[in-house]
Amino acid sequence: QARIDQLRQHHHNRANAIMTVLQKGPQNAFSIASQLKWDLSYEHWDQFPISQKWFATGEVISHLKYLEGMGKVKQDKSSFEIRYSLN
To answer: How far is 50 from 48, CA to CA, in rounded Å?
Structure first.
């Protein structure tokens, strides 16, 4: 039960952090990921290995899909990239 509570709290915190980033305006998942706090030993996103950037962006996409399902976030596919914004 303790681990389930930890995961729920992490999900809640990450969803809130993503929505805070989206208050700046529409952005793609990679851009959102670059602005979040990660528990890694790197000081800045530019120092992340490319594989870690892929993992981080994938995690952000999963949270965005959840938020989209909840009606809190919407996506725009009208340009060459998928951008997300607050609903």
So the answer is: 6
